[in-house]
Backbone:
């Protein structure tokens, strides 16, 4: 009884120390970081809030690096990682994790592919064993490939092809905004290319990218770092590293003129509009100001674009988007666009909406934002940031991205500081520099039915 | 050269083969689950307040539930009023405009939104912990003094109508709407969205009267979880909510629960669909029913987890679909059990066959010990993960108060799951996975899939607006 009380007091004090202060200050999240001789990056962070642990493996390959003629391949490959390995039969990864009280998934993104399981913390070694087995000895068979090609085709149908709008604010916008194939192509994949993938493609991709020296293993939860280190050594140390190929050139030529695209939609009932502005790279001094500008313009119902378009002018039903279509400021490396998506009301036009979008930008780039607006945006930013750190999975994600792309997961504790230091003048300058028509792509997507009706009416 | 390479790779192979363990490692000693201490208090006006410290991040998360404002409330006079009231309540109060409210929320790192469902209206809100008193002040203002400005009401009416029109293009929306109607019939639980006429008919006066009558402290509870000190937080809540006037709690309604007498297909025709969206299910049980744990666990084994029977069959073996599922949705008065999959047109009939086969298998034969133990571990393990997040814990506590469950629900969860036997699961499946009287709802292209569908029962065909366009009999 007494032991339990002591433990919970200790937890409380620890957490208070980890996040202290009214204004953002460096955090104190414990991070152990090292590399195995085979190149595997390992991050361990103890968190004794609850008896759970997340084991995540992040590979440094996303759909930007999939082969030409094989759109959707990185994601198809992710599915193959659940098809068994030397000591784990097809789909048994799910069985082991769930039968041990856990949950699991994988995700393919622009620049990474991750695999993760959250388990009761005393089963941490099971998670390590499962991840090691597939990193070392993925079982690749023709039959399983056929099966997963069918499954992924259904995934694309349910999420894209049978849906109104067909994720145009991602797939079409990227196809149009970027010129370099690696950045521009459809990452979910064309059905014909998904189904053209061969067993050799799968083998090559596995050998090339799914090597310990191209991955981060992250363990966050109610564990002792010293114990976990031994387990990691036991299961991962003998997996051989692989020569890394020359990385594809992801650079994007600067955009010099606005791109406008008109599309019709067979399934939608209402028109929609998407915009994408190229962002400065993450190491640019303009980046933190840009991130706060994105927040001020389009995060939540207090944001300037939401207020203008949804509330004042009543042009759009909604407004959503952000700085990274899938993730956050830290979990990508290649060129990125800020996206915005609106469903708009029939009877209005894309030009009317763009006029308002531009008027808001003009206001920021000429008059700037108020000190109060910026201070509040920082508070909101910090609050959202803490929410990302709430679960063991949330912390795993951030630590893994920082290890993968910056080789420095300790940064988690000081990540907020550059954003905290942004000035109103920097926000104003960022708006003037990046939110210009020549830096953007616009897609206006109108229901086909409506386009036909309007023709009929005009007869 | 060649030989050396061969020897080298052989050596490598041996090293790796020896190093990797063939069988899964055994678990270590279980770590203790220290559940936060939950404190219940009551304000003089009747508001139940439940507090649980969970200082995992420096934030506070709150759920305020109005138990008398359900989608059934005043449904005869004003269908859909609870939903519109919830969407406009945070668009202005007697002392704050909508914009001021949103800006104040931003200044505390906050969120605040409302939603209504079959059993309540809930306000979910959060902020940085240091601003908790401000958060309670804003929540209380929205609960007590929403002003429903004329312009905001008009805008919400128009946007709701347009939003529903946009939704009617989405197969997921359509299949859910038709399923609720098919299963719950005349029961108020069949409500999904109001029709355009009902939305347009609502006035500012209607909304103000609704809120005054049903957003009352003596039929509400406030759950607060986060980086809090119980006494200090309770004092803040008392200050913010103490002036809220109690009202008259409306009598509990108990409209008859519908009972299906045959299997029937409800087909929503969506020409041009390249997939059939399929929901199959029936009425089940209310949340307080003793079979809650059995049917929940039966669903976990059937289609409610990744390694479930349905996923192994129609995804991993046959490749018909991406994400088949099942769920047991238990509410205050009754509930539903549902199995679903979105599949390409060509395999619509075969999918129906397999969904029914797997349902019947659960009814006819006991699950294996291995399956049962896995489902128990899955449920209890994931329950612990849920309780480790502020909104996860708040949500669990909220169900206890919304459905009037035993206060020991959270502590009893594990033993109740662990006590289940294969016979319990089979009995629940036999009773509630009722394939003979199932509602089969499909959204798809009728012309493309009709021949695969008609062998399964009589069909009523709807358009995407919900109008009946045709009926066919399987014997035609």
Residues:
């Amino acid at each position: 009884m007494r032991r339990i009380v002591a433990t919970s007091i200790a937890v409380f004090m620890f957490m208070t120390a980890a996040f202290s202060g009214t204004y953002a200050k460096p955090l104190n999240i414990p991070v152990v970081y090292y590399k195995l001789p085979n190149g595997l990056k390992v991050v361990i962070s103890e968190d004794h809030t609850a008896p759970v642990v997340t084991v995540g493996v992040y590979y440094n390959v996303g759909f930007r690096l999939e082969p030409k003629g094989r759109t959707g391949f990185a994601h198809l490959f992710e599915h193959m990682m659940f098809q068994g390995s030397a000591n784990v039969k097809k789909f048994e990864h799910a069985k082991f994790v769930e039968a041990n009280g856990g949950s699991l998934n994988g995700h393919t993104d622009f620049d990474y592919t991750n695999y993760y399981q959250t388990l009761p913390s005393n089963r941490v070694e099971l998670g390590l064993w499962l991840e090691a087995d597939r990193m070392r000895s993925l079982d690749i068979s023709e039959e399983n490939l056929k099966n997963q090609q069918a499954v992924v085709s259904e995934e694309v149908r349910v999420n894209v092809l049978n849906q109104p709008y067909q994720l145009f604010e991602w797939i079409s916008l990227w196809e149009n905004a970027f010129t370099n194939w690696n950045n521009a192509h459809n990452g979910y994949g064309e059905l014909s290319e998904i189904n053209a993938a061969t067993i050799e493609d799968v083998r090559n991709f596995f050998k090339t990218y799914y090597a310990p020296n191209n991955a981060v293993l992250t363990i966050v939860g109610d564990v002792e770092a010293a114990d976990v280190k031994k387990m990691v050594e036991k299961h991962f140390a003998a997996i051989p590293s692989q020569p890394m190929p020359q990385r594809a050139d992801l650079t994007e030529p600067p955009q010099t003129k606005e791109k406008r695209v008109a599309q019709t939609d067979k399934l939608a009932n209402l028109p929609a509009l998407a915009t994408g502005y190229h962002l400065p790279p993450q190491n640019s001094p303009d980046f933190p100001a840009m991130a706060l500008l994105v927040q001020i313009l389009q995060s939540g119902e207090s944001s300037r674009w939401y207020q203008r378009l949804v509330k004042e002018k009543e042009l759009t039903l909604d407004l959503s988007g952000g700085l990274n279509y899938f993730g956050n400021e830290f979990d990508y490396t290649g060129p990125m666009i800020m996206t915005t998506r609106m469903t708009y009301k029939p009877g209005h036009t894309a030009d009317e909406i763009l006029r308002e979008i531009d008027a808001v930008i003009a206001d920021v780039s000429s008059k700037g934002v108020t000190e109060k607006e910026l201070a509040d945006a920082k508070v909101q930013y910090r609050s959202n940031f803490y929410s990302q750190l709430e679960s063991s999975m949330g912390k795993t994600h951030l630590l893994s991205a920082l290890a993968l792309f910056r080789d420095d997961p300790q940064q988690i504790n000081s990540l907020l500081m550059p954003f905290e230091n942004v000035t109103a003048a920097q926000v104003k300058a960022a708006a003037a520099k990046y939110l210009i028509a020549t830096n953007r792509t616009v897609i206006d997507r109108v229901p086909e039915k409506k386009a036909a009706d309007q023709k009929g009416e005009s007869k | 050269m060649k030989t050396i390479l061969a020897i080298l790779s052989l050596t490598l192979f041996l090293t790796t083969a020896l190093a990797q363990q063939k069988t899964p490692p055994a678990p270590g000693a279980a770590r203790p689950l220290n559940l936060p201490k939950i404190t219940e208090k009551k304000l003089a006006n009747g508001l139940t307040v439940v507090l649980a410290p969970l200082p995992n991040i420096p934030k506070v998360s709150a759920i305020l539930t109005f138990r008398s404002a359900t989608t059934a409330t005043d449904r005869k006079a004003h269908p859909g009023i609870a939903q519109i009231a919830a969407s406009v309540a945070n668009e202005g109060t007697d002392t704050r405009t909508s914009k001021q409210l949103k800006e104040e929320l931003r200044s505390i790192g906050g969120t605040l939104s409302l939603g209504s469902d079959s059993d309540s209206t809930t306000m979910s809100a959060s902020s940085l912990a240091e601003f908790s008193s401000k958060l309670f002040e804003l929540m209380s203002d929205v609960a007590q003094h929403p002003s429903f400005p004329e312009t905001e009401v008009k805008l919400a009416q128009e946007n709701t109508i347009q939003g529903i029109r946009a939704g009617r293009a989405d197969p997921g929306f359509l299949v859910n709407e038709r399923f609720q109607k098919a299963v719950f019939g005349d029961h108020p639980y069949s409500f999904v969205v109001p029709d355009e006429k009902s939305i347009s008919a609502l006035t500012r006066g209607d909304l103000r009267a609704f809120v005054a009558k049903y957003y009352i402290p003596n039929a509400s509870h406030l759950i607060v979880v986060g980086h809090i000190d119980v006494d200090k937080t309770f004092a803040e809540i008392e200050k913010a909510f103490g002036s809220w006037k109690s009202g008259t709690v409306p009598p509990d309604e108990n409209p008859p629960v519908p009972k299906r007498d045959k299997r029937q297909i409800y087909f929503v025709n969506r020409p041009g669909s390249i997939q059939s969206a399929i929901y199959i299910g029936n009425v089940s049980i209310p949340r307080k029913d003793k079979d809650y744990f059995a049917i929940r666990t039966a669903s976990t084994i059937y289609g409610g987890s990744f390694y479930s029977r349905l996923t192994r069959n129609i995804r991993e073996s046959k490749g018909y679909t991406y994400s088949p599922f099942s769920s047991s949705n238990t509410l205050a008065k009754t509930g539903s059990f549902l199995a679903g999959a979105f599949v390409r047109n060509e395999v619509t009939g075969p999918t129906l066959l397999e969904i029914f086969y797997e349902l019947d298998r659960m009814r006819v034969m006991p699950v294996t010990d291995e399956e049962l133990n896995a489902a128990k571990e899955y449920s209890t393990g994931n329950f612990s993960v849920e309780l480790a997040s502020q909104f996860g814990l708040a949500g669990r506590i909220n169900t206890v108060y919304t459905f009037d469950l035993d206060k020991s629900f959270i502590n009893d969860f594990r033993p109740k799951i662990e006590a289940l036997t294969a016979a319990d699961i089979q009995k629940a499946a036999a009773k509630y996975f009722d394939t003979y009287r199932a509602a089969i709802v499909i959204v798809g292209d009728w012309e493309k899939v009709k021949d695969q569908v008609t062998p399964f029962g009589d069909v009523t065909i709807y358009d995407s607006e919900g109008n009946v366009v045709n009926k066919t009999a399987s014997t035609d």
Notes: The radius of gyration of chain B is 26 Å. The mean pLDDT of chain B is 94. The longest helix of chain B spans residues 369-387. Chain B has two domains: 39-241, 264-472.
